[in-house]
Amino acid sequence: MRDRLSVVVGDITKLEVDAIVNAANEQLLRGGGVDGAIHRAAGPELQEECRKIGGCPTGEARLTKGYRLPARHVIHTVGPVWRGGNAGEPDFLAACYRNSISIANAQGFASIAFPAISTGIYGYPADEAAAIAVKTTMDALLELGGDPEKVIFCCFSEEGAAHHRAALDSILQ
Ligand code: AR6
């Protein structure tokens, strides 16, 4: 399992993988953060395809092409807004990872990269989110079998990466 999961610090829009995951909003309208960066790099065709999809409820995921990105596809998922932790946030966040991996599995994508969903504008505590990201991903890979062979947690800061590495170490020890 350890060799299928990696943690990197960097810009997810630069990754050449079968799919990158976008931390989107329920309207699937271009926003800020990683969403803004992905739309900027992909070009206007991405917003056009998102507009046709029409939206995505929190916890679910939708697939589009990657257009001008080096990634071939984008899986848009909508993380929960942090409201203190008692409004179902952990279950919604886990659903984002599970549903994104499920799409990658069904599509036969060998490689997928996640940003730290909900930990920016949506305010989810980064350490708690990393623990859910890693645990849910490992469970989904074991349950589904096959693809994706490689999952990258692409963090925007060294601190974010440290949270993911710590979560990996604590589960795999
Ligand atoms: N590559 C990798 N990670 C990034 C990048 C990048 N280029 N840019 C930012 N991050 P956020 P959210 C990190 O705010 O909290 C948008 O407006 C960032 O440092 O992008 O789920 C949407 O439209 C943080 O660790 O997403 C929604 O309205 C992580 O990505 C809302 O924000 C997620 O931060 C979603 O908020």
Automatic annotation (TrEMBL):
Pfam families with a match to the protein in the record: Macro (PF01661)
UniProt GO molecular function: O-acetyl-ADP-ribose deacetylase activity
UniProt-listed SMART domains: A1pp (SM00506)
Highest taxon above the source species: Bacteria
Segments forming domain Macro: 1-172
UniProt xrefs under NCBIfam families: PRK00431.1-6
Protein name: O-acetyl-ADP-ribose deacetylase
Originating organism: Stappia sediminis
Lineage per the UniProt record: Bacteria, Pseudomonadati, Pseudomonadota, Alphaproteobacteria, Hyphomicrobiales
